[in-house]
Amino acid sequence: MAGNSRYPAELRERAVVLVAQYERELAGGRGAIARVARDLGVHKEALRHWVKQAKAAEQAGSVAAAVPVPESVAAKNARIRELEARLREVERANQVLKAASAFFARELDPPPPKW
Description:
The chain has helices spanning 9-25, 32-40, 44-59, 72-108. It is mainly alpha-helical and 115 residues long.
């Protein structure tokens, strides 16, 4: 059944780890699944199912479910936030440049006089 999954196994594992991390950071874990689903582009119900499966496997004592949280996850998330902020800045600068370009194009090529 895993072979026909829409999402790769690595993404599922990482998503479950991130949900566990956010649940620890947020009081009560409210909104952790929705936040991770939005950030990774995963359907939140699919992620909810993966988390439920991981918790059930962990309670059953499965070694595979005990995925360690890498220390670099927080650093990667910080870098992602930094890059997203930079992207927003570049997109705003691009909009300003497009507007300036349109303004100067109108100035350099005025419409012909009407007779």
